[in-house]
Amino acid sequence: MEEYVLNFSIPQGPTGPEGPNLPICYVNYNTVTNPKRLSIKDTKMFHTNGEFSVNGDSLSVQAGTYEVTFCGRIDVNQDFQSNIMVALQESLGGGYSQPVSGMTMVLAPGINCMHFSETRIITLSDAEDIFVIISNNNAISISATVSMGSLILKKIA
User: Fold this and answer.
1) What is the pTM of this model?
2) Topology of domain 24-155, per CATH?
3) What angle do CA 74, 77, 82 make, to 5 degrees?
4) 60 Cβ partners below 8 Å, 6+ apart?
5) pLDDT tens profile 79-129
6) CA pair distance 110, 20, nearest whole angstrom
7) According to the model, what pLDDT value does residue 24 have?
8) Cα three-residue angle 96-88-131, rounded to 5 degrees
9) Secondary structure of residue 122 in the 3-state scheme
10) Residue ranges per domain, the chain?
């Protein structure tokens, strides 16, 4: 029987990027049915210095550049004639809002279930309140459900 000896060294490489940890906020939304604003179920914030805070069903976000990932699932168990939208909105004040960088997912008529996910880089020049809505543009009553809704914001600048 022969004996073998393994004699080698494992190369050492870089340990990863140096520098501060980036502020990150994770928001998990409650399952909601029918057109309305999604309510926040829970949040987790890491390495923050006041960049994020919860204000009811809105997330207050300080000015800066963020990588934003928005995902979830929408289900409809009936026929419908107009698009159903799930949108990440920013408050404009006075009860008005607009989609954040076009982050609007659209379920077209004839489709009963859709998983959605989108990542974008956005820059907020001022502090903003952002929230998620489900809407069918005030068409006839539709029973639509949004589940597994999540939002991740990472401040990159």
Assistant:
1) 0.80
2) Jelly Rolls (2.60.120)
3) 70
4) 52, 53, 54, 127, 128, 129
5) 777 788 889 999 988 888 888 988 999 988 888 899 999 999 999 999 999
6) 48
7) 96
8) 65
9) strand
10) 24-155
